[in-house]
Specification:
GO molecular function, one term: L-galactose dehydrogenase activity
Helix content: 25-40%
Number of helices: 10
Bound molecules: nicotinamide-adenine-dinucleotide, magnesium ion
Pfam families: Aldo_ket_red
Strand content: 15-25%
Distance between the termini: 44 Å
Protein name: Os12g0482700 protein
Largest sheet: 8 strands, parallel, barrel
Radius of gyration: 18 Å
Number of domains: 1
Shape: globular
CATH architecture: Alpha-Beta Barrel
InterPro entries: AKR, LGALDH-like, NAD(P)_OxRdtase_dom_sf, NADP_OxRdtase_dom
CATH topology: TIM Barrel
Number of strands: 12
Keywords: Metal-binding, Nucleotide-binding
Structural class: alpha/beta
Length: 316
């Protein structure tokens, strides 16, 4: 896979990124040898970007990812690790004190001296002015200390990005991580790309499978989508299956087609999933997407296009 530049960071990341939330058992149990094999296979196939959070599996994802990277035994400069702060199983806390402690805890669990990216995790759940006035400033200090090389913000509503980026000093937020807004059923992120580019902010897009909606197995029980969206995605998956095709491959390829998105984070928990998703990327670059199938699936999803769900607190 050809690497892509991530904003102005100088980091070069694989278009397929390894979402490690499944390693926290959020989509079901993952035996340790399977987790290690998945990470090993990812590195072997050219995936160099790994995303986790203390929130995923209540710190389990970070510990397991750390173990898997150690077991793989690759040099530290060969992979890029992003983790997050401010969101925990116990709740949200974006205070300077908590975030400062958080990065040390994350580094200990990951077994690393530094993370490449430290994101504020799902900032729509706090007063965004706290992010601007308290969290981002303390993250600059963490950056200066060398514990995190770059700073990011994540969350579902796209309005959070302009709100924060319009107020913080240039260069204090290096990347954003948006999810569920760049896939076959929802492309809302596209409207924000020129703005992000003008700010020199790198773009990470997560959940190309809409957190399981665009898979044969369907979404987990906790999936927040409205019923109408779930049913439409089910119909789209069934349509692909009837034609002997795979909705997951199509969805991966769709998300990968936009070069302004540096990396597409897909949640993976087995070497087989890693192989399938990398194969989808390679097939896309050699033979392109199945346009006929894409048009059919887009037609099925048209009534629910860009349908989303609410997330976070109402901002004043
Ligand atoms: N707020 C945030 O910061 C945020 C939000 C969402 C996701 N993320 C990151 O992005 C990653 C990806 O998102 P996600 O995991 O929520 O959703 P996703 O859309 O990547 O879907 C993941 C699901 O798809 C399954 N899957 C993956 N490859 C498959 C394949 N080839 N065939 C069949 N099923 C397959 C996985 O087992 C899992 O059940 C997360 O792990 C996380 O690292 C971050
Ligand atoms: Mg999340």
């Amino acid at each position: 896979m050809e690497l892509r530049e991530l904003g102005a960071t100088g980091l070069r990341v694989s278009p397929v990124g390894f979402g490690a939330s499944p390693l926290g058992h959020v989509f079901g149990d993952v035996p340790r040898d399977v987790a290690r094999a998945a990470v090993r296979r990812a590195l072997d196939l050219g995936i160099n970007f790994f995303d986790t959070s203390p929130y995923y599996g209540g710190t389990v994802s970070e510990s397991v990812l750390g173990d898997c990277l150690r077991a793989a035994g690759v040099p530290r400069d060969r992979f890029v690790v992003a983790t997050k702060c401010g969101r925990y199983r116990e709740g949200f806390d974006f205070s300077a004190a908590r975030v400062t402690r958080s990065v040390d805890e994350s580094l200990a669990r990951l077994g690393l001296d530094y993370v490449d990216i430290l994101h504020c995790h799902d900032i729509e759940f706090t007063d965004l002015d706290q992010i601007v006035n308290e969290t981002i400033p303390v993250l600059q200090k963490i950056k200066e200390s060398g514990k995190a090389r770059f700073i990011g913000i994540t969350g579902l509503p796209l309005s959070i990005y302009t709100y924060v980026l319009d107020q913080v000093p240039p260069g204090s937020v290096d990347v954003i991580l948006s999810y569920c807004h760049y896939g076959i059923n929802d492309t809302a992120l596209v409207d924000l790309l020129p703005y992000l580019k003008s700010k020199g902010v790198g773009v990470i897009s997560a959940s190309p499978l809409a957190m399981g909606l665009l898979t044969d197995n369907g979404p987990p029980e906790w999936h927040p989508a409205p019923k109408e969206l779930k049913l439409a995605c089910r119909a789209a998956a069934d349509h692909c299956k009837k034609k002997g095709k795979n909705i997951t491959k199509l969805a991966m390829q769709y998300s990968l087609m936009n070069n302004e998105i540096s990396t597409v984070l897909v949640g993976m928990n087995s070497p087989e999933q890693v192989e399938e998703n990398v194969a989808a990327a390679i097939e896309l670059s050699t033979s392109g997407i199945d346009k006929e199938l894409l048009h059919e699936v887009e037609a099925i999803l048209e009534p629910v296009k860009n349908m989303t769900w609410s997330s976070g607190i109402e901002q004043a």
